[in-house]
Write a structure and sequence with these properties.
The protein is α+β, with helices and mostly antiparallel strands. It contains twelve helices and twelve strands. Helix 1 packs antiparallel against helix 2, helix 8 crosses helix 10 and helix 9 crosses helix 10.
C-alpha cells in the first residue's frame, strides 16, 4: 500500500536518523570515534528525534492497513449477503457455507459440514469428468459456468458458479471457494420457451405445407371449376355475380395474407435468413393494397427500390396504414406514403397523432390503444420486428396534422 508524501518523508527522516545513530555507535565500537561525556546525549537526541517521525509513518501504515482489511471485509460481506458461498478442501470436502447456499440446496449447515461435494451431483453425472473437474481445481485452475445439481429433495437445481482455488505462499491449493447464484427459475423459463418454440415450429410447418394446398390449390381449382360450369346467363339468373366476385377477392386477399404469414413463420426455423429481392416499393405496395377496401384512401408517391421481402414488408406497411385510418377522427381519412429523402420512407396520416413515446409503449407485446379495444395487441410489435429483420429502423413523430412514421431504409 502506498503512503502519503508526508509519511514517506517522515519515514525517510527516521531511517536517516537511525543510520546516523548506528554509524556513530559502530564508530565508537571499532575505535574510529572517541567516547566522550556527550556521547550518551547524542544517542538520546537521536532516539528522541527518531520516535515522532517513525511513529507518524507507522500510524498511517496501520490506518491504511485497517482500511484495506475493512474494504476486503465489506466486499466479502456484500458477496456473502447476495450469493451462495461454500468453502471446500481441495478434495471437495465442505468446510463452511452460508445461509443462502443452505437455502438453495435445502440442507442445514450442520448437515453439510464434512460432507463431500458429490452429494449434490445428479444421477446422470459423468463421474470420470467429475473427478477430472476436482483434479484441475487442485492444480489451481478456476472453473466457472452453469452447473446442474440436485437439492436435498433430489430435485434438479441449476446454479451459476465460480470455483476459485486459493493458494498458500508456496503455490499450493489449500482451499476452494465457490461463489454461486441460483438460476433454476431462469433455466425453467428457457426450457419452457424452448418447448413453446417447438410448438411454434410445428404450427409453422403445418401452415407452410398443409394449409398451402387448401389456399393455393384446392380452393382456386374449385372456384375455377365452378366458374367454368356456370354460364353467364346462369350466373345472372342465380344472382351470384357479386358473391363470386367476393369469393374471388377474398381468395386473393387470403393468399396474400398466407404468403406474408408463411414468410414470417420461415423465420422460426433455425439458421434462416430473410429472403429479399430488389423491388420497387411503390409497385409492391400498390399490388398489395389493390384487393383491400381502403386502398383508395392511400396515396403512394414514387418510391425507391430496395432489398425487401415483399410479403413481410408490405404487411408491416399495411399495418401502419390501417392504424392511421383506424385511429382517425377526420371526416376525410387518408394516408400518404412518400420519400422524405433517398433513404427515409414516410407513412403519414391525418389521425389523432402518435409520439415516439406512445409508439414505443404500443409496440410492446399485447399493448393496446385502450383497454376496451379488441384484437391481439401484437400489430405494432410484429410490424417493428419485420422492419428490424430487414435491417431498417422505425420512429414516430406526432405532428400537427396527425402522425409521421419514418422508416430508414439504410
Amino acid at each position: 500500500m502506498k503512503l502519503s508524501i508526508a509519511a514517506q518523508i517522515s519515514l525517510a527522516i527516521a531511517i536517516a536518523i537511525m543510520v546516523a545513530f548506528f554509524s556513530y555507535q559502530t564508530a565508537l565500537v571499532i575505535g574510529y570515534a572517541d567516547l566522550t561525556n556527550k556521547s550518551p546525549i547524542y544517542g538520546w537526541v537521536a532516539v528522541v528525534s527518531f520516535m515522532p517521525f517513525f511513529f507518524y509513518a507507522i500510524v498511517e501504515l496501520i490506518r491504511k492497513a485497517r482500511y484495506k482489511f475493512q474494504t476486503i471485509d465489506d466486499t466479502l460481506s456484500a458477496i456473502n449477503s447476495s450469493n451462495a458461498l461454500v468453502e471446500f478442501e481441495p478434495d471437495g470436502t465442505i468446510l463452511s457455507c452460508n445461509d443462502i447456499f443452505c437455502k438453495v440446496t435445502g440442507y442445514s449447515e450442520k448437515e453439510l459440514i464434512g460432507k463431500h461435494h458429490e452429494m449434490f451431483m445428479p444421477n446422470d453425472t459423468n463421474w470420470e469428468k467429475y473427478r477430472e473437474f476436482w483434479w484441475q481445481l487442485k492444480k489451481g485452475k478456476i472453473k466457472s459456468g452453469e452447473f446442474k445439481r440436485k437439492n436435498k429433495s433430489g430435485n434438479a437445481i441449476w446454479i451459476y458458479g465460480n470455483y476459485n482455488p486459493i493458494k498458500n505462499p508456496y503455490g499450493e491449493v489449500y482451499r476452494v471457494l465457490k461463489i454461486a447464484s441460483d438460476i433454476t427459475d431462469k433455466k425453467k423459463i428457457e426450457a419452457e420457451v424452448s418447448k413453446k418454440n417447438g410448438y411454434l415450429e410445428h404450427a409453422a410447418k403445418i401452415l407452410r405445407h398443409d394449409m398451402h394446398s387448401g389456399i393455393n390449390t384446392y380452393i382456386p381449382r374449385g372456384l375455377s371449376s365452378l366458374k367454368r360450369r356456370l354460364s353467364k346467363e346462369e350466373i345472372d339468373r342465380l344472382k351470384i355475380t357479386a358473391p363470386l366476385k367476393m369469393i374471388q377477392e377474398g381468395l386473393l386477399h387470403t393468399q396474400k395474407v398466407y404468403k406474408g404469414v408463411k414468410e414470417f413463420t420461415n423465420l422460426v426455423k433455425e439458421n434462416t435468413d430473410l429472403e429479399t429481392a430488389m423491388l420497387d416499393i411503390k409497385e409492391a405496395l400498390k399490388n398489395y393494397l389493390s384487393s383491400t377496401s381502403y386502398g383508395k384512401q392511400v396515396k403512394i408517391d414514387d418510391l425507391v427500390e430496395s432489398n425487401i421481402n415483399e410479403a413481410l414488408f408490405c404487411t408491416a406497411i399495411d399495418n401502419l396504414i390501417r392504424n392511421g385510418l383506424k385511429y382517425n377522427d377526420s371526416a376525410t381519412k387518408h394516408v400518404h406514403v412518400y420519400m422524405e429523402d433517398d433513404n427515409i420512407l414516410i407513412v403519414e396520416d391525418n389521425g389523432v397523432g402518435m409520439s415516439q413515446e406512445d409508439f414505443e409503449k404500443l409496440s410492446e407485446p399485447y399493448a393496446r390503444g385502450n383497454k376496451d379495444e379488441t384484437g391481439s395487441g401484437l400489430g405494432l410489435n410484429i410490424c417493428n420486428a419485420i422492419i428490424e429483420e430487414h435491417g431498417f429502423t422505425i420512429t414516430s413523430e406526432k405532428i400537427e396534422t396527425g402522425t409521421k412514421i419514418r422508416i430508414n431504409l439504410k
